[in-house]
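Try this one yourself first.
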């Protein structure tokens, strides 16, 4: 979704935003390792190449090379296979390569702007974005501390994207947009983040940084723009006050005052690491505590790391007014959140402190929550939670003590929170499991918190409306059960009642979610709607899942009777439309049904998303955007949501894409790429439900499998691969069986339709999809000619305390862990497999080591395989050089081992063994005959 509703600082788009560091003046080449029978023979006869290979294998950072592109993937314009010289260069890491121009032009299409509406819905921001960042920005040094990554030069999270400009449009009375006004006064090359409206909508706040002369990115400063004039200027007159954006950064306290987390002026230089350690690194469990944690990455390693974390994360809070006055409040601390009360009288302040942990990230560090007055005076401590290393790995396990502490959105300054009654352990059977409490910000002496509601499942949040209405959510992963309760927060004599009780997997029964309106205080509450009768109506916005695909809707729902009336529904014949936000909530009080306006998005298979303002009663719509098609060369692609059946009767779905101008009856079957990601379910019925819409626009991301539509491939996108564990069964105990069965059904379907050649079907996936790919090549080599596995994990014994949706440990389910690990079956993989991984992968479970070790296991058994390690990249890839090279590798693999000939992709050893067997058999027959 391109539209961002901004009532608070915008979330970050996780790309990169920092220029090259002098320490790394030039980017590394991706490191590539190959293993194939024909390549081995070539190496034996090439001393020069052997020498190159040994140098490349000595170290991932053996040499720096200039940025080098092989244009058009090193191929002729007709897409012919790479020459032997090109193969040699690319295999040995000679530089970054570019994919063919058909793919490159799609990836380089300019990004569309993001949208943000003002609090009163009379202004719209168009936030301009840039294309893919260069690799030099990833090469900037970063500190990996306590589960997060910090850019020390900027004192913020590393690898942030940014906006390049802001244009303001007025929304006219007739629904059209007025002329654009650019926010001006910014420094040249300004990189903009954390855009936030003031409560009255008259000002914007945002952070700005620019590249300095030494090629470092500067620290962030807070700027404010006047919406009427478009003029922007720094919030602080002093040039020495910088934003600390490691955690929460700034928030509007009222229409003219911001609370800002700043780098302390008294802070000196970063601590230096001792060359000689003062002692060994020691961890101890002499108390014999049971501490099970998943494979978190980027954790603190020693006391130096802990000191470094303190250095970058410690902040000084400053109250800053638009008239230039500033006031420091509170002590220096690591503040993780700052939340003003709706009446602007109090601040809810959360901080973390020592003792730290070397086995869990900072979210589990000791946490203190305090209440201050808005001018920084301490009122009281709400809680000081200890280090939480021992949260059980079972799903729905939580931290002990007060959690989810927040302000009621419908009250001036009333707090609410939840406390577990099972010690945080989901395996403990107790009733109630969670209790929700509420109390005023400054209770009277002896006043105890009120119990708002008791829950037998795990608390999942509250939607507030007023004293007569609130919705409480609870859920339980093991059974997939989800409940919605109706409560009357201001009436203790009105008992809570269940509004919805359903399976979270049953998308067909989803009634939708309540729509929210903005209050004068800037909070969001459930929107009530007035009608002629006396009913209490709310709006339910739903995805509208049906066996024919999603048909989003907006229902007028009587909260007391359960009766509902559909007042809006997506066009199900050609378009896919969704309700994005209410546009008629400027006034206080209930909304009038005859004045109801909504913002919707609209798209089709061939038309990209545009936004409209719709008047429900008048049934009129006004288009407010006119974005061009991002890749017109694929505007006539063919898309179909298909259904088929697994051999055990489970209904499966997938989206089949065919290239523009392709006609199966005339052109015959074409090469096919299957790209998917398995999912766990508790029932066959839920697994077989249709998700998504056949009319959705084919959005193509920079590493999307749909890029190969431009190369004449059929793409089977997202075929459902359900892993089902009904009742007390665990889904993963039959993982392999169900995985293979789902893949067989998908392959049979595309062959039956005549769109895919049975010898030219490739399988691929990212993360858990890469794990799936390796397993299918091991267990179902007859289905696919080759595989592409990006950023995966292949040895589950390296993630012994759970992975994905598996909550049992290795010692509780040893056979499952071993049988699900394709690493254990490296000797069975006989089809070509391409492994790609970011060298700085920070995702839990998918350490880069997983691909390293899997490749070595494959190579040790003579498999035709290739490993590409992308320098500086994390779990997903962001730099243009990395993405383009990743696509070049994928295209090369698909051309060589899928598209070339029907026999391509058959394992060389297998073919040779078959031929030898036939020859020996033919030679033996005459002897036996004699």
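Now uncover the answer:
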């Amino acid at each position: 979704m391109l539209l961002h509703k901004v009532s608070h600082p915008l979330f970050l788009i996780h790309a990169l935003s920092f220029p090259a560091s002098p320490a790394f003046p030039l980017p590394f080449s991706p490191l590539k390792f190959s293993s194939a029978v024909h390549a081995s023979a070539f190496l034996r006869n090439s001393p020069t190449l052997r020498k190159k290979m040994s140098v490349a294998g000595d170290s991932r950072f053996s040499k720096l090379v200039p940025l080098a592109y092989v244009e058009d993937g090193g191929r002729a314009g007709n897409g012919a296979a790479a020459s032997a010289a090109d193969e040699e260069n690319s295999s040995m890491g000679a530089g970054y390569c570019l994919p063919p121009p058909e793919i490159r032009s799609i990836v380089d299409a300019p990004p569309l702007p993001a949208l943000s509406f003002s609090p009163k819905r009379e202004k719209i921001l168009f936030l301009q974005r840039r294309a893919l960042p260069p690799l030099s920005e990833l090469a900037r040094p970063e500190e990996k501390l306590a589960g997060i990554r910090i850019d020390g030069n900027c004192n913020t999270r590393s690898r942030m994207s940014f906006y390049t400009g802001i244009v303001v449009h007025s929304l006219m009375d007739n629904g059209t947009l007025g002329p654009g006004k650019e926010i001006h006064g910014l420094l040249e090359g300004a990189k903009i983040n954390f855009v936030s409206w003031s409560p009255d909508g008259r000002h914007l706040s945002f952070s700005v940084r620019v590249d300095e002369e030494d090629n470092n990115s500067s620290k962030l400063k807070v700027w404010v723009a006047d919406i009427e004039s478009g003029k922007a200027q720094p919030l602080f007159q002093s040039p020495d006050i910088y934003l600390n954006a490691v955690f929460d950064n700034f928030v509007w306290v009222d229409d003219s005052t911001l609370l800002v987390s700043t780098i302390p002026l008294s802070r000196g230089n970063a601590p230096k690491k001792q060359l000689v350690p003062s002692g060994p690194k020691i961890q101890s469990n002499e108390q014999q505590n049971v501490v099970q944690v998943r494979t978190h990455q980027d954790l603190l390693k020693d006391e130096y790391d802990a000191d470094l974390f303190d250095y970058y994360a410690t902040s000084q809070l400053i109250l800053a007014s638009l008239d230039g006055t500033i006031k420091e409040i509170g002590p220096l601390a690591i503040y993780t959140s700052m939340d003003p009360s709706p009446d602007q009288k109090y601040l809810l302040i959360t901080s973390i402190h020592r003792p730290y942990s070397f086995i869990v990230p900072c979210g589990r560090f000791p946490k203190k929550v305090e209440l201050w007055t808005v001018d920084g005076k301490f009122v009281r401590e709400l809680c000081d939670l200890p280090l939480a290393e021992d949260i059980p790995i079972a799903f729905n396990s939580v931290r002990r003590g007060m959690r989810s502490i927040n302000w009621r959105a419908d009250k001036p300054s009333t707090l609410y929170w939840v406390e577990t009654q099972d010690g945080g352990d989901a395996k403990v059977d107790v009733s109630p499991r969670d209790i929700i409490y509420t109390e005023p910000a400054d209770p009277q002496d002896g006043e105890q918190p009120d119990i708002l509601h008791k829950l037998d499942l795990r608390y999942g949040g509250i939607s507030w409306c007023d004293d007569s209405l609130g919705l409480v959510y609870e859920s339980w992963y093991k059974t997939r059960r989800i409940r919605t309760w109706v409560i009357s927060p201001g009436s203790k004599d009105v008992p809570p009642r269940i509004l919805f009780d359903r399976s979270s997997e049953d998308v067909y029964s989803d009634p939708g979610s309540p729509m929210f309106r903005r209050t004068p205080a800037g909070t969001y509450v459930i929107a009530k709607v007035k009608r002629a009768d006396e009913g209490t109506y709310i709006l339910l916005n739903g995805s509208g899942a049906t066996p024919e695909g999603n048909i989003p809707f907006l229902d007028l729902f009587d909260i007391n009777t359960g009766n509902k009336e559909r007042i809006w529904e997506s066009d199900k014949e050609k378009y896919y439309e969704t309700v994005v936000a209410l546009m008629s909530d400027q006034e206080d009080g209930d909304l009038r049904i005859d004045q109801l306006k909504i913002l919707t998005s609209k798209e089709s298979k061939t038309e990209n998303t545009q936004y409209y303002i719709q008047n429900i009663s008048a049934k009129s719509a006004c288009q407010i955007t006119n974005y061009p098609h991002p890749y017109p060369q694929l505007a006539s692609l063919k898309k179909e949501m298909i259904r088929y059946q697994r051999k055990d009767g489970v209904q499966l779905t997938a989206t089949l894409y065919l290239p523009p101008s392709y006609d199966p009856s005339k052109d015959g079957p074409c090469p096919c790429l299957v790209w998917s990601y398995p999912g766990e379910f508790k029932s066959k019925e839920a697994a077989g439900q249709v998700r998504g819409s056949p009319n959705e626009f084919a959005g193509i991301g920079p590493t999307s499998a749909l890029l190969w539509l431009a190369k004449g491939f059929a793409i089977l996108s997202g075929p459902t691969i359900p892993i089902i564990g009904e009742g007390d069964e665990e889904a993963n105990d039959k993982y392999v069986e169900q995985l293979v069965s789902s893949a067989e059904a998908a392959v049979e379907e595309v062959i039956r339709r005549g769109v895919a050649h049975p010898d030219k079907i490739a399988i691929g996936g990212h993360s858990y999809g890469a794990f799936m790919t390796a397993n299918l090549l091991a267990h179902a080599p007859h289905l696919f000619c080759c595989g592409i596995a990006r950023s995966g994990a292949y040895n589950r014994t390296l993630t012994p305390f759970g992975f994905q949706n598996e909550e049992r440990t290795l010692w509780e389910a040893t056979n499952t862990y071993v049988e699900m690990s394709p690493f254990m079956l490296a000797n069975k993989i006989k089809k070509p497999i391409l492994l790609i991984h970011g060298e700085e992968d920070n995702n839990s479970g998918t350490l880069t080591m997983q691909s390293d070790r899997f490749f070595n296991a494959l190579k040790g058994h003579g498999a035709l395989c290739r490993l590409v390690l992308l320098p500086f990249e994390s779990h997903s890839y962001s730099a243009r050089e990395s993405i383009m090279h990743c696509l070049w590798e994928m295209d090369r693999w698909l051309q060589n081992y899928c598209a070339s000939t029907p026999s391509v992709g058959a394992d060389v050893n297998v073919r040779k063994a078959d031929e030898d067997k036939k020859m020996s058999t033919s030679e033996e027959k005459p002897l036996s005959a004699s």
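Discussion: Residues 468 and 681 are 37 Å apart (CA to CA). The first strand starts at residue 31 and ends at 35.
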